[in-house]
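Researcher: I'd like a structural prediction for the single chain below. Treat it as a standalone chain; there are no partners to consider.
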Amino acid sequence: MVMTVRRSKIIFVLLCFANAVFGQLQIKTDTILCFGRKMVIEYPLKSRVNIVNYEEGYFKTINCITDTTVITIHCGSMVNLPLTSMTNKTLCSEFILGKDIRSIRGYSILNGGKKYFREDNYFKYGITVVYENVEERKLMYYEHFFNNIRIQ
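Model: Treating it as a single chain, here is the predicted structure.
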């Protein structure tokens, strides 16, 4: 009897672990073409994508269904940077690498909780990638996605 209870506890723990690992693997890898370059980015599989074209480029907006995050990818020109409105936001860091790359991070307080944002501008390629409205518990996932963006 004791052995059966222990086995069922172990099986329960293994199922929980497998579910957590499987949940981590539900991502989509997307290749986006911009001015003859390919940008490879990952984001949650459960998402809704909207693309808006304009004369000088396009915006691709990804609404992540599993949380409140919005990812915006801009390819083109004729926009004011940063894309992120800095109204009521606290800037935590800004990284600039010459005239090639700028990355800004920060947060805003919404409903008593922090919601994080990050904007990476790849000036050399005319690409800007933003995440907004990220809950603190999901921040490491979106940081991982953005840290692994590849432009070829």
